[in-house]
Amino acid sequence: MSTPTPVGTVEVGPGPVTPEDLVAVARHGARVRLSDEALAAIDAGRAVVDELAAGETPAYGISTGFGALATRHIPADMRARLQRSLVRSHAAGSGPEVEREVTRGLMLLRLSTLATGHTGVRRGTAQLLADLLSHGITPVVREHGSLGCSGDLAPLSHCALALIGEGEVRDAAGTAMPAGDALAAAGLEPVELAAKEGLALINGTDGMLAMLVLALADLRMLLRTADVAAAMSVEGQLGTDRVFAAELQRLRPQPGQADSAANLVAILADSGVVASHRGPDCHRVQDAYSLRCSPQVHGAARDTVDHAGRIAGFELASVVDNPVVLFAEGDEPGRVESNGNFHGAPVAHVLDFLAISAADVAGISERRTDRFLDRHRSHGLPPFLAADPGVDSGLMIAQYTQAAVVSEMKRLAVPASVDSIPSSAMQEDHVSMGWGAARKLRRAVDGLGRVVAIEVMTAARALDLRAPLEPSPASGAVVRLLREAGVEGPGTDRHLSPEIETCVDLVASGAVLEAVTATIGELR
């Protein structure tokens, strides 16, 4: 029986890491510990490797070279050098430093695979990786270097390099220093890698998967926030809420669409603005697509997120290594087998799919924003929501910023996974480019937050201009949040960038969504 997991600590066992645990470790600095079951599995896997290493039959990754050099047999007295050389040579990343949360996420996922016992590492090696996470020691990983096949080799190699006391890391305070110094300061000793351990530490889809799980957490929040923004825009532009009725959504039973429409109905409930034009004299039942079809677009993105979440769940439950240790079963002895599970295609495909959905949601958000600023389409609002149009430009250029981000997101929506450049002397002749897909998705998620934030800011100003009509309680809560945070209402022109960044922070932190849910309850 394992001891209870302390508060703020994630226990890593032979089973899969949950998305919530990954976010806790990667983003919020939770500590980790290996369960007793994990340590037993690690010992069992190592016993298989030790037996094969002592035999005379060549075993890939244990007594041979790697990739296109796999035909060379490595004598026992050179195998520690083999593993050390592998890590050093593969730590070949270049470019800007990858975010701390991404590196911590990929470290946790590699530890999770080690904990299955199917990689054949020693328990001390796995424990040191856990200790780095718990002490907040984060290897410096570079932007470029992974092709998403044979795993995220270069990023994981930079992490493995720290385990042998080499390379550069950042301590818990974010200070860059040599890995050996950071280990010593934490009272940790570097390991000398034994047979197969170097390969086991670097051969996984952990980087792209970590970025997928983090993106899914962000997108689930942002898509609900996009529903908030859309509802505020429908309200501020005197649109109708009748098109979001449940009986209309049931005619097209797409689950994401139904949830998004239900959210819009809930957010718009008790709106004085909507009530002001809901009577028999209102004939506006054909709002522009960007208003009327918000649930259809947001819902399609939600369904894509759910699909990607299922793929992530399968991958979190996977053992990604090559070769992989198989335990003795029946008359079959324990053995090591080569496989292709390191290929990142399943993850790469959904990473690209999510970038497409994010760009589409951003595109419809920008179109809703633009309608506020055009006096011919805004139903009585001043041009650009300016105090004195002509002298003041109002939110004219905020929409430019939005459009620039949307345009970039469209470029980021071009799939990475359809590309492949052969490597390793044509041994690795088809690769997934999943790491690249993940990197561009992170930029797309950031862009979506910025676009939605500008829509929220614009809609809040428009609702103020509709006074004395009262917005819905949910919309009113968002307007108050912005005003209390220093995002001012209508008035003469002022420096807009700080207010935009404040709105971006309020959206990205979940504060806008929380303002709504605290008022009307949880959204779907």
UniProtKB/TrEMBL annotation:
Compartments reported by the entry: Cytoplasm
CDD domains hit by this protein: PAL-HAL
Family matches, as Gene3D superfamilies: Fumarase/aspartase (Central domain) (1.20.200.10), Fumarase/aspartase (N-terminal domain) (1.10.275.10)
SUPFAM superfamilies: L-aspartase-like (SSF48557)
Pathway involvement of the protein, from the record: Amino-acid degradation; L-histidine degradation into L-glutamate; N-formimidoyl-L-glutamate from L-histidine: step 1/3
Alphabetized InterPro entries for the sequence: Aromatic_Lyase (IPR001106), Fumarase/histidase_N (IPR024083), HutH (IPR005921), L-Aspartase-like (IPR008948), Phe/His_NH3-lyase_AS (IPR022313)
A Pfam match: Lyase_aromatic
Reactions it catalyzes: L-histidine = trans-urocanate + NH4(+)
Enzyme Commission number, as recorded: 4.3.1.3
UniProt entry tagged with the keyword Lyase: yes
Alphabetical UniProt keywords: Histidine metabolism, Lyase
UniProt KW Phosphoprotein keyword: no
Superkingdom of origin organism: Bacteria
Major subcellular site: cytoplasm
Top-level enzyme category: lyase
Family: Belongs to the PAL/histidase family.
Protein name, per record: Histidine ammonia-lyase
Organism: Nocardioides lentus
Name of the gene encoding the protein in the UniProt record: hutH
